[in-house]
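Continued from yesterday's entry.
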Amino acid sequence: MIETSQKIWHWQDLDVAWSCSESEDNQFPPLLFIHGFGANKHHWRNNQPVLAKITNCYAIDLIGFGNSSQPKSRLRDESNQQGEFLYCFDTWANQVVDFCIEVIKSPVVLVGNSIGGVIALRAAKSLKNSCSGVVLIDCAQRKMDDKRLNEQPSWMQISRPWLKNLVRQRWLSTNLFRNAANPTVIRKVLNQAYPSGENVDEHLIELLRTPSNRSGASEAFRGFINLFNDYLAPDILKDLETPVDLIWGEKDPWESVDVANEWFNSFPCIRSMEVIPDAGHCPHDEAPEMVNSILIRLIQQAA
């Protein structure tokens, strides 16, 4: 069994938690796993040790999540106070880019789930030739972004200014977060995200719940729910030169597989798409055997 070491990297006066599984057969580009919203590096528990049989595998906790620093959130229109952090796709992507340059130090394949997919795309744009490929696993489609407001019902369009003013209030975001960060709610959400029910166990619930008990855990939640105008994946995909592969859960309740098919047929940078039968939003953890076999093939192609 390949061991996974846990480490801390100091970045912009913040601590970034990361893990590494080193391969004895390091002939392919290393992988960097980027988790989705509310998750952390341990969400790749069923992938990192397996893929490390053929290449070095890294997983990172984004700022605000897992064991990384959880600084106070600053919204775009708020004055910048020392120690605050603008939780957005650019700052998270900058974290990933600097990690690749300073820690991995070689061309890398970025694997992102949900919002981790958007972050991977944004990072790949900056890394250019230092990114050998991007794998999007049920990438976030960000239906609530202002740029997609015309797709929403008229009542939602009319109420958007009121909603924006409401969710920026820290008392509300903190209470919403605390209500969500309990085992009962986490299990309910996981039962939606994992429609087959595979691998929804106490270990998964605990690895998602534990970081939420930290004092600053609600700050990333506040920052994220106020991202009404940020990157959409198609905006990056339309002129991205890095090759992209899609892996999608057939029954993802939040990110439509039909939209993923539209991306596949629309953007030249996307070279393949694999649909995982009966899986939902996190097929890498719900059906890891299938996803791992696909990732192994993609890594070998990227060499």
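--- second protein ---
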Amino acid sequence: MALTNGNRSRRNTYTQKRKSAADPPPRSRRSGGNRRKSAEPARKSSRPRLKLPVVHVNGRGIVRVLRWTTALAIVAVFFYGAGTGLIKAYNFCTTSDYFAITEITVTGNSQVKTDDILKVCGLRKGENSLLVNVHAAEQKLVDNPWIEKVSIRRELPGTFTISITERVPLFCARKDNALYYVNAGGEIIAPVTTENFRSLPVLEIGPGGDEALPMVAEFIEEFRHAGFPFDISQISWIRLSAGSGFELYWETRRLRLSIGVENWKDNLKRIASVVTDIEKRKETVMVTSIRAADGQVWMTKATEQ
């Protein structure tokens, strides 16, 4: 019995030892696995993570959004209604007979006819006054060479007043075998025609006469108040030159007058006094030319010529 028990106990012991040597304990297997996992570096993901903002919605926010939405809706409805009303009002005003043109007044025109002015600017009785572009009508009239300034005033419901400032011609000048009206500054206004003919002296520019051209307007004004026994309209031509100064030809008396440019105002007064004196004595027909310069006056008689 003892031997049998002893052998049995040895076999059991050996079997346990072999089993323990072949199989490692569970703790050592788990700990080895953890060491390998911790030794490997953690892999980072290459895709960026999208972080959405956190929105907190509460009862007050919802009420506030509803208020703003309602207010915007009310404003939109208001503007829509106002725009629709304005369109309807505009259509009514531009088609109503209440705003039809009933009266057109034109003032200040002497060279340009009233019918031509109305035709150019496009104003007609019966048309709607609100549809008239006043600025465009003024620009069309200013393109006329005779018109210097223009002003169109609209008075509702249907009255228009057109004020014209025309260019005033003082002379007629020859250019390219044609005759033109010229203003005080020597600027050409328009060609002379049978329809716009006016009896004006012809202006001629002689050698060196360009320097005296800016003084022509003042010379004509002084001439009218110098006391001559004839009007400026009776002068057939005016010539400007450096040697003779201002030359005028009195056609009815066939008398030539010459005024020196230097101190021309004093010379003009002296020659006006002499012409008035010989006209009173009926001796004008005996004189062909009179010259005033350097404070003196010379006369040339017909027998001396």
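The chain has seven helices and twelve strands. The first helix runs from residue 2 to 22. Will compare against the first tomorrow.
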